Amino acid sequence: MMLDAPIPLSSRYSYHTIFSDICKTRFNHLATRMCSTFTIFQAIALALVSGGSGSYLESALLVPLRFLLLYLSSLLVIVTRKNYLHVQYRGYSNLWKLVFGQLFCVRFVVYEVIHFACSFVVSLAYSGLLGSEGAGSSAVFKQCYMSYVWVLIPTIYTLQHCLFDLDRLSFSFDTHFQPPQRYISAGWRRIIVKCAIMTLSVTFVSPFFFALAVSRWWIGLVSNLRLALLSFVVFINLEFINVAFNANMSIGCLHKGKPISSLSSTPIETLVTGLSSHKPFTKLTAFQELSYRATSSDSSLRLPIYHTRYRNTHIWPVILRECLVTIQNTNESVTGYLKSLENLKLQDRSNKRTKNFYENDKEKLFGNQVAEEPAAFSSSQLRFPGSPPVTSHEAQNRRITLKDDDVLIRKKFQSNDRRQFPFGIKSPLGAEHAYDEPIITHETTLLKLAGMLLRTVRNYINLFFFPSAISSQQDQPQVSIIEAWCISKRRQAEKLVPQPVCHAECIISLMGLLINAIEEDPKGGVVSSVGEVLKCLERSVGALGRFADWSPESNRKTDDEDEDMPDVVSILYDLSVSAFLEIVLKYNILLDELYLDEDVVKLSKWVLDMCRN
Q: Where are the transmembrane segments (predicted)?
């Protein structure tokens, strides 16, 4: 049944417009205050350290020049990062496709040029201390110095930046706000360790490069130490700006301690425009805010959802629809991929044991093909379809507790750390924005044309070796033998669910609203939606559970590593189990008076029996 759309609102109050203004403010704060502070401090410290080699007056006069050089380096990095900012996984199912896709693209060339410019500019700022004039000023040293600055340093940094997809802003679905200062201060140790590792990598590679460039393997201990120190300084500058960019641009759904939609005169209607947005960053932030409202200890944040304004009484059905559609899209993506594996006869042993069970349509539980025999659903066994074996104690621990001040899922479900901090809005709300494009700069026609040509060539290669990369948009994607042989479960999960945080926030939002509504609005529309939500979660348990129980042949030798780093689908599966359990426990008495799908009833009895045990 199609739900009515909310009454159209002026674009002046769209979530996308307000969020774009806030992003610009955060970007400006990074480009002015934070970068300026870092470069001024560095220029002054450099003047003090290099004062011994000349007059202090000369060093003081060089401070403005060094500041401009270092500040230019920072601007080059943050503007480039902003142009390639994204929040979705790029979707490479294995390591070979990742290397091919990340290195054979215009983005890699652009970053190589930008990092070369930054390396050159930073080396100029440090020329008085670590320049090529030292170490005897030999011609060989100058050539090695140029090799470091022009080739080795930018190439090493570009390789790690692209291969690890550090353009992607990653979020944790249990964090809605954290100041950038806290993010940066907590990451200083990681920054230093990472830069030290990259410096050692350059030092290890440099003899081979020198042998090709200047026909010498060794240029002396002092010269190598100077070059290593130079590379460490350049890496520190690049890495700090990247970390500061992440800290400022991943602040989240709060602005000055309040949800972003509160800047509008119709906050919930504005929030709905964000939930239905086609811009991934805007959509993710809107679901973050919905989760924050649903789980906050301040009930006033939920009242506008319960009691909507005149002629907008259908706001909750639209919110419910957006959440269920997001969850169902994940279910269909995972189910379609598992069907493609069945066509190649690559199911794991648990799927093979259920062959006869699949042939009997009447025995299908939870609306999906499951990975265990019917006996696995007895109340004496603490395991349901697709889940790895667990003990009674572990099963009872799979519960989500709503905190007083925030929603904090168990640390097991945490992904990468994301930090937030609010800043003021300077641009007017009525301004038009296109947030799917860069905020300040745009790609040139030449870059777009080069990117199109590279994508065409890459698609032809993928069509031969990896047909699923081309047919992934079809109803049933195809998987080649080559892909199946070198597949990575964790990377395949990222390909199937490019925005897992949105799915997680949907689950948390629905759970929080249902649990709180039973006391805050017991006769409203939220409570009456419990059956529909449970049905969606039940289907999600079945679909995601099969993937969680699947173990590809290429991963069975690295099971220990997979346990340490679970894939996103397995994390969403555990979260779905926890949310279903919490809702059933909260609505245990009311469920007897509701008509529920047969599969939902079976799973409800299972989780209740699990709790009793």
A: 30-49, 61-79, 100-125, 145-164, 191-219
- Token pair, residue 246, equals 């992440």
User: Could you give the CA distance from residue 71 to residue 37 in angstroms, rounded to a whole number?
Assistant: 10
Across the range 31-58, mean pLDDT stands at 80
Amino acid found at 102:
Q
Any bridge partners for residue 46, and if so which? Answer: none
Alpha-carbon gap, residue 353 to 342, rounded angstroms? 13
Q: Over the stretch 142-193, which tens digit does the pLDDT of each residue have? A: 888 888 999 999 999 999 999 999 999 989 888 888 888 888 988 899 999 9
What letters, b where the CB count within 10 A reaches 16 and e where it falls short, cover 100-112?
Answer: bbbeebbbbebbb
Backbone phi, then psi, for 3, in 5-degree steps? Answer: -90, 145
The count of other CB atoms within 10 Å of the CB of residue 528 is 12
Count, residues in the chain: 613
Q: Which two tokens stand for residue 426?
A: 């300077």
3-class SS of residue 466: coil
Q: Which two tokens stand for residue 451?
A: 């990117």
CA distance 527 to 376: 31
User: What average pLDDT score do residues 332-339 get?
Assistant: 91
| φ, ψ dihedrals at 258, nearest 5° | -125, 155
Half-sphere exposure of residue 357, counting CA atoms within 13 Å on the CB side?
18
- Distance from C-alpha of 200 to C-alpha of 161, rounded to nearest angstrom: 17
Residues 6+ apart with CB under 8 A from 360: none
Helix (H), strand (E) counts: the chain: 26, 2
* Side chain identity, residue 116: F
The partner residues of 168 in beta bridges, in order of sequence, read 86
Nearest to 253, CA basis, from 23, 90, 474, 447: 23
Q: How far apart are CA 374 and CA 85, in angstroms?
A: 47
Q: Which residues contact 418 (CB under 8 A, 6 or more apart)?
A: 169, 170, 171, 172, 175, 178, 183, 250, 252
Greatest distance between any 2 Cα atoms in the chain = 89
With H, G, I as helix, E, B as strand and everything else as coil, classify residue 254.
strand
Distance between CA 613 and CA 533 in Å, rounded?
25
Residue 363 in tokens: 């025995």
Distances (CA, A) of 295 to 173, 291, 506: 12, 6, 12
CA–CA dist 321, 38 (Å, integer): 46
Cα angle at 543 between 540 and 545, to 5 degrees?
Answer: 95
Distance CA 292, CA 314 (A): 21
Query: How many CA atoms does the CB half-sphere of 13 hold within 13 Å?
Result: 16
Distance from the Cα of residue 56 to its chain's centroid: 47
